Amino acid sequence: MVSIAQWKYGKRWVYSTTYDEVPTSTVQYGLPVHEQFGVPGHLTVVVGQMGEPRDVPGSGYDATYTHVSVAECKLAQRYGWSVSSHSMTHNKLPGGMAVPANARIEVVDSAKLLEERLGTPVTTFIAPGNDHCLPYAWPLAEEAGYLSMFGVRDQLNYPDTDLMQLCRPVVYHKLDEYNRRYDPYRLIYRARETGGWVVDYTHAVQDELVIPNRELTPGELGARLEAVTRVGGDEVWLAVPEEVVDYLILARETTVIGEQRTPTAISYRLAAPDIPERIQWHTLTFTCTVPQDWPDVSIEVTRAGESEPVTLERLDDTTIRYSHRVYDGQAIRIEPQT
Questions:
Q1: What single DSSP character describes residue 280?
Q2: Above 90 in pLDDT, residue 327?
Q3: What are the tens digits of pLDDT across the range 36-53?
Q4: Residue 137 phi, psi (nearest 5)
Q5: Number of Cβ atoms within 10 Å of the Cβ of 207
Q6: What is the rounded CA–CA span in Å between residue 315 and residue 327?
Q7: Half-sphere exposure at residue 180, Cβ-oriented, CA atoms within 13 angstroms
Q8: pLDDT for res 240
Q9: Model confidence over 152-186: pLDDT tens digits?
Q10: What value does the CA radius of gyration of the chain take, rounded to a whole number of Å?
Q11: Residues whose CB is less than 8 angstroms from the CB of residue 312 and which lie 6 or more positions away in sequence, other chains included
Q12: What would the pLDDT profile of 186-201 be if each residue is shown by its tens digit?
């Protein structure tokens, strides 16, 4: 039997990091720490203020920090990071996103402008302020080209979570009046045991904390990423949010059809007619049971007469796991090697 793995490469759980309203210090101090542990990061930017002093009255960052620039975002992208829209003005416009015209500016126009500046697709929207903005963004998601939206609910995500209501637990100092200490292990073991996806949510990385309930020092960030990679080991998939979303969409839109088994081959096709054009990562992971007397196998994946490369591993005497790019109408054939 052929089945699609819950997470890419058969990983047990997933970890991502996001930074909101990003001051320039986050790239300066955070990027080297992420590189040290091999964990990509994610910048979510107020598009109308990139490279300028923060201008969000009521925010602790108002007129305090300079927002990350286009050049700094492109630098982070070269290291495997991703960038999303955190709106155009962070709800600075009168009435915020509750005003239809404002919602279009914050949701749609911000994505288009950010794509123009970066030259790359922007497929994720991070709600500014809190989850109350999401209902105003949902009707505009398709027009903006978003495949996912995130709020700030303090929960894990799972393969069946609504991609337009994804969660991001906080990972800084003050969570509430009774929990003020930074915990580098927060939610890691729960994610590992339940097969969940942790999407950390913080703001700045800098040597001295100016707003402790929104920031981490490089040492604290390092402690968090060290805990994730050590506890996770080979079982954790470290990825930017967009790659995880793309995997979940592919898994939902792909069906194994026409599976046939003979003494000399296993063959089937993939039906995936509704994969969104804005998907950037096309790889899915599969498992398949094979006869015990097939100690070695070969896999051929073809589409329109062309072969796709396959990453293959043997899990036990009767189970193989393999990953490859997925398109509608692919033919897959598994045979024993003689």
A1: -
A2: yes
A3: 999 999 999 999 999 999
A4: -90, -30
A5: 10
A6: 25
A7: 3
A8: 98
A9: 998 999 999 999 999 998 887 655 555 556 788 99
A10: 22
A11: 297, 299, 320, 321, 322
A12: 999 999 999 999 999 9
Q: What's the CA gap between 338 and 270, in Å, rounded? A: 27
DSSP string computed for 223-239? HHHHHHHHHHGGGEEE-
**Total length of the chain:** 338
Burial environment of residue 316 by CB neighbours within 10 A (0 to 12, 13 to 18, 19 or more): exposed
Q: How far is 172 from 221, CA to CA, in rounded Å?
A: 9
Instruction: Compute CA distances 335 → 248, 253, 261, 268, 318, whole Å.
Output: 28, 26, 10, 12, 13
> Which H or E run includes 267?
strand 265-271
| DSSP conformation class of 101 | H
Mean pLDDT score, 56-75: 85
Cβ atoms 299, 310 nearer than 8 A: yes
pLDDT digits (tens, 9 = 90+) for 90-131: 988 988 899 999 999 999 999 999 999 999 999 999 999 888
- Angle ∠(80,161,152) on CA atoms, nearest 5: 70
Q: Write b or e for each residue in 157-171: b if 16 or more Cβ atoms lie within 10 A of its Cβ, otherwise e.
A: bbbebebbbbbbbbb
The fraction of the chain above a pLDDT of 90, given in percent, is: 79
Q: Is the pLDDT of residue 78 over 70?
A: yes
User: Residue holding tokens 């090697």?
Assistant: 337
Residue 75 phi/psi, 5-degree rounding, is -60, -45
3-class DSSP state of 28: helix
**81 CB-near residues (< 8 Å, 6+ apart):** 31, 34, 40, 41, 42, 43, 240
Give the position of tokens 């996103």.
97
